Batch of 2 targets.
Target 1
Amino acid sequence: MKESETDEEYLISMARGYQKTDPYFTKSWMLTAKTLFPENFGIQYEAYCLAADSGNIKEASSYLEEMFRKFPSEHRLWDEVYKIANALRADTLDAEATFLRDMFNHLPTASQHDILLSIAEHCMDTAEHCRLMLLLLRKFPEKVVEHGVKLIDTLQMAEKHSHCQTPLNQFRKLLVCDVAPLVLKLGVELPVKQTYRLIHKCIEFYTMFIYAPNRNKLDLFMKSSLEGGGGGSSTEGGGGGASEAELWRQLCSFVACAGRRLRWELSELLQEPLSLLQEAHWQRIRALLLARPAAPVPTDLSAGAAVDAEELLAAQHKQVFYCTIVIFLHSLYNYGKHINPSWFPGATNDIQCILLEGPRWMNPGAEPPKHKKRKVEAEGKEAEPPALTVSKCVPAESAVVLTQSFLTAIRCWSILQYLKKELARLSQHIHLEEWPWFQSFLIESLIYQDQPKEAVAKLYKIIESTSDQATKNKVNLQLASCFHSFGESSAACSKLLDVVCSLPETSVAASATPYHTPEGLHRKPERKLVFACYDRAEVLCFCMKTLITCFKDKVLMQFSRDDLALGHLIVMTQYDWPEEEPLFRKLLEVIKKQGSFCYGLFFNYLISVLFLRVDGELNFAACLEAYML
């Protein structure tokens, strides 16, 4: 024994000396030391370390429990219990972490609870305290009633006082993805206002996270924010690399669960496939929006009765708003992802689409288009919806998702217009107006609802603020579509020619039938819209069809003679030959009736020899000789 050693240190050194050669001798020395010095932390801690080194889970857990009861203020003990807490939160475990977790699980349940609670209470960092309390609640769900509401309040206050600039912060993540779902799932009663606040915060967080342009970095941040130094947490909520579909499922699940706690009758809608809601579902939403609470009985003239009626009305509106906004945001996401995948991170598809209205007068035998906007039928019903189809450049499954999501978003948006106060508040928080897919939706919803003049106003704002040629081309295509729909053929042709002159050269393989078959309607719709692929071949086809229709209006419906327009129309029939042969024949009849025809540019634009001889019945070259003199 060295002179500088204490008796305790000597006993410990002797036990250590025989650890590898004679474990029983080591235990004898430690038993002697514990008997002589029962209140010495160093000896108790050394006994724990020797048991841990030998992998003896039972002895180590016993020593740990005894130390925690006798020496709750020792720093070395707290270092060890923090290591245990990190091991309990770790996603992957090494040998040491596995031992620590097994040892902790070997402790009596009451000791496990007391240790975790003490660790959390001693933690000075608010975020770490909340993570440890979450660990406690997951380990002991029966304690959620005792600690859950307080933990929610702590997280809300921490986020407020940390002055976070975005909902994407560690406090919000813990609140809406981990703590609040656990509290709601176990049926803990929360104040109504607090439940609404949680729903609002949840929608903000998930929406911002899904749409974040730097998702990969955020995944790492959100995951590391839960790790707390030595370990991670396999959380149920967002972050940690969850797929977008899973994130939407979590959002819907949270709002539906909170809605059930609030006794919402619409909460079940969030469990349906959100883009497949039936007409009966929409009727329920609209009925609840427009319903008014029953008036108080005449004998009850108290202010409280009136307040209750107002609160009931506000609760109805909140129910409609939160259910509808979740469905809208999900539909808007699917719509934007299929319209322009480049708006979203990690997109593998580069096919972009644009909503265009086909010329309303598509064959020579049809009546000329009526440009007067028709919103309501004579019998007071809503006008027949237009036929909506999608380019075959888009896979059939994606085409179905696009059309269903677009139509669902339109119906949601019309409902949200009754709730502008709530909508404005959420829109400001999630920066809705800054999303390019939202601006695209606003324009294309106006086109779909036959409001071309309103769409034109928004389109001009976009074209004034962009230098991207592809964006300008898309805007000009939709401007041409709108101009033609309300009879401005000259303006439509001008925009189409601008597009034709600036189209990219690349093109995808064309389909024999360019568009998917639209969903069946009870009667033939007056209007036909298509999500066309932004591709040279398909855009040229649309431009030519629309130009032909515009010139056809001018040539066949005007009383004055216009050989230049007639000649332009003749050469354009070559583009889709022999589809345009009936029109070509009709134009020849016009020439015959005129008695003369002059169009000196004809041979400059001759690209098809086939249409010079039509079924052997008429030699068009002979007509040229007769009428182009």
Target 2
Amino acid sequence: MKSLGGDALNTEPPFWSARPAQKEALKPVPGISAPAPPVNGAEHRPGIMAKAGYSSLSMKGSIWRKVLIQSMLREDSDVQDDFYREHGCRCESWTQLRYSCYRLVSRKWFEYLMGLIIVANALAVGYEIQLSLSHIADWMFWIDFTFVMIYLVELTIRFLAWGKKCFLDPWCILDMVLVALGVLSLFTNSVGVQVQELESLLVVRSFRLLRLMRALRLLKQFRTVWRLVSGLLTSANAMLSTLVLVILTLYIAACLGIEVITKDASLSQTEETAGIVSQYFGSLFMTLLTLSSFVTLDSVAPIYSPLITEKPSLTLYFFFIVLFVSVALMNLVTAVLVEGALANASADKELEKLDLREKLQNEMPRLLAVFGEIDRDGSGTLTMEEMSLVPIDIIPEELRAKSNISTMHDVFEMLDVDGGGELTREEFVDGLLNLFLHDVPATSVQTLRLLRSVDNKVNVLADQVRQLQYPGRGLHRRQISIVSSRSDSTDLHLGSA
């Protein structure tokens, strides 16, 4: 098998039947990608996309899109290859067991099944807590025992599949801790020892629901929920910084409040404000605790209204506290959390791969049908004349709405990068995927046209110079130049323009 940059060949035997030398060749070399597939006229080896009715694409897009196109028809042999790249060992009896576990945890339904078990366990924990207020039924012990055994089996399967990587995955570490607490709780209950602290700590078993949301994030209906959960999980630094800033601000305000409120003799001697000063501003700690209610504006009017009435200059003091802490700081924290959640959502590469996979699955068969309608002579290639005979409406409207292309002539010029005057089926399909599945600005389209025009003029000038230097040989060199330029043309990735 080639590395991620090339075509995955389904004609290769399973990895366990290959010779050791062949296995070494199958391993991808870090930092080195497979060579790009040949251009027009070159021989293509049959790839995974041949099952969809066409040969492997001469891909000009990103490595992600190449891998996604290959994985659209993912088979069991691909899982075997992934397992071999992970562990690099033969499929003997022990390795066969590990491969079976790896194959099991690679399925989506396994995550969803464990998610349902986690939900059932969370409901059982809540029901058990409710029963603990009156009495504890003996059968609840066996329910806990069943769930703990299921989690132990799950952890065993994941450890066999992933090996030492389990100790590097935060979710697996969380599962190990929770399962260890569950086993310890069952042991203490079985020997008749009740540990109240341990029982209270077992409530954190409900945190396994976060892993359920992580599995459900691949479904469109739950992506918003995952963004919220992910934003909370990744905003610990922002919340800690906010807490430090709030405490520092309130501490400074409390010190200032002692000077302007507690030490003010007129406020302490007035009947309406004396009780407020002694109750809410009697010490530095009480003043700090009172000002903390200004963070959420929790019924603070009865506190500052009598003080401002008696001493109007305190308006500035309370005004800056409300403005800085309640309004500015809290809204700033909200903005930081939202920005972090959006950044994490956009950086979730697995979701991007899933979205791109869905687009490819929806649009690729339609583009193949479009190619068949345009290629009326059945030659397997498209020319400018054939493209000009059909309207732009033949392209699906969903694709045309995402581009700045208005005519089929423009489409042909954009796809015919090497200037050969013909488009193969691979160039047509892959080029349209690049052109329409990515946002291509109009300025990029115009720039490419100008570069094409400049390239043609430079070639004409080069021919004229050669004819002056070598009379009678200019045409021959021009032909050599055309062949060389086609074979060495650089792939243009329109999506990154």
